[in-house]
Amino acid sequence: MYAIIKACGKQYKVEKGSKFEIDRVAGEEGSTIEFPEVLFLSSDGQATIGNPTIAGACVKAEIVEHLRGPKMIVFKMKRRKRSRVKKGHRQELTRIVITDIVAG
Prior knowledge:
Layout: E1 2-7, E2 10-15, E3 19-23, E4 32-35, E5 38-43, E6 46-49, E7 58-68, E8 72-78, E9 83-89, E10 92-102
Antiparallel strand pairs: 1-2, 1-5, 3-10, 4-7, 5-6, 7-10, 8-9
């Protein structure tokens, strides 16, 4: 059984027990969060497509840890002007594990 959910403005294909990283969500490590926006649900060859979401379906997950992504370097330069700007950015992430997929 797998589902496609919408979380933090992005879509993810999830299965029970799968681990992945999403943008930072509020909550303590070890707490449970729910994703009510289930766009697609497949179980035993039966597919359910939402319009735009499936009513009553939700995906439950547990927050494993909060972390920061790799450093991205942004470098801007204007030629012949001695103008240079170098900035770094690290995205705030949350690692979660899917605990349950509830069909509507």
